[in-house]
Amino acid sequence: MPMSNQRSLSGTLGLGYVIIFVFANIIGSGVYKKIAPMAAGLESSAWILLAWAAAGVITLFGALSNAELAGMLADTGGEFVYLRKIYNPFFSFLYGWTLFTVIQSAAISSLAYVFVQSLNSIVPLPELFPSLQDAGIGGIFYPFRDFGIKITAILLIMGLTFLNISGLKSGSRVNKVLFFVVCAGLALIVVSGLANASGRPSEIIDFGSMKESRVSVSSFMTAMLAAFWAYQGWVSAGFIGGEIKNARRNVPKGIIIGVFSVTIIYLLVNYSYLAVMSVPELVSVHEAGNQVAAIEMAGRVGGSSGIFLMSLLILVTTLGCLNASILTGSRPYYAMSREGLFFTAIGKLNSRNVPGNSLLWQGIWSSVLVLSGNFDQLTDMLVFAVYIFYGAMAAGVFILRYRMPDAFRPYKVWGYPLVPALFVLFCAGLFVNTFITRPREALIGLFLIMTGVPVYFLFRRRNGKRASARPHD
Hints:
This protein is mainly α.
């Protein structure tokens, strides 16, 4: 049974904030960087844009399926709540545990690190403890490498964490301001790219190269992994369902509007990159390792001034996505605690009516991941792990249609049963393909998920039968 608490989260945010949260949680560093590795894998402008479009359609199918669940079950905790209702507390705990250990916390640490790296390129940060750079743990983790950057990233995470602890409105106002700045910046990229295009649209999107390229289903899906990192975060609006006015209508509507809009924006922005830079040039950016496609494009269009402005835009975008990730990510752990499936203190609200303890522990663990420094591996595992649960949620549409046929559904998924079925099949294919092409990341991702099994039984033992006795219908 739920734990008692005099305070409860209040619904104060409207549809506009839901859309902003979707934008802010999705649009981070991926839109500026991921076209380069996709170019290396696909070697065709047409295939690249098709991969972005396909990833957007698949994401939209997931969002449409998720929206039906959100309309029925909208509450603080989002997918944790949905999975508990569809399956059982054990499976929903595994999702929440994975969210805490890698999915949300790795996203936060990675975004903070990218932000500070970009800042360091504009304002060099001092090196700290250079004599300890080679001091490692097991020959894998080197916490003192780039320690000045890492400490700054940790300070950023904790600073935004305390901003959100001070109240929901404080964090959401920051997101609103950053949202408009990012939209203006992305519009400028599109305008600049179109104004400086190297050829006509038929030359930029070279369909002839599609026939010459050797793209397989596996390589196409692997390239889509890069795009999925750029789309990741679309479910986060559901995490704050208990703080949304008329959540059962506004959450699904906001998720659909947000994901559809971001898909269009991504296609326009990536077309703009291709309008200025050729595929071989983008491949060179990827091979360089320390370059960002958007910055290289800005340098060609605007010289040093363009590079500076693009660097600032990346800073602002990453900051907005980081703040939104911190704000929304802490809510599932709060919901887990309320169900007796996490530490009791995390389920308490502070005097500002926000889950301050949940925010604090999320910030601390994300800071630990910053010190680990293995960001590329974490983000690869992140996409693999999260799509296991996304597929389970889409399957839940069928389960609840069968189990609760007469339940009130403010929104029913468009294209049922084809849309959720295609999304479930894609998630299964992505699971298999990742094991084939990235076995190390897949195995580590599964290991992190399974570490939650003994933790679940520890909490269940501590709380007796409270979690398992909660009704499922």
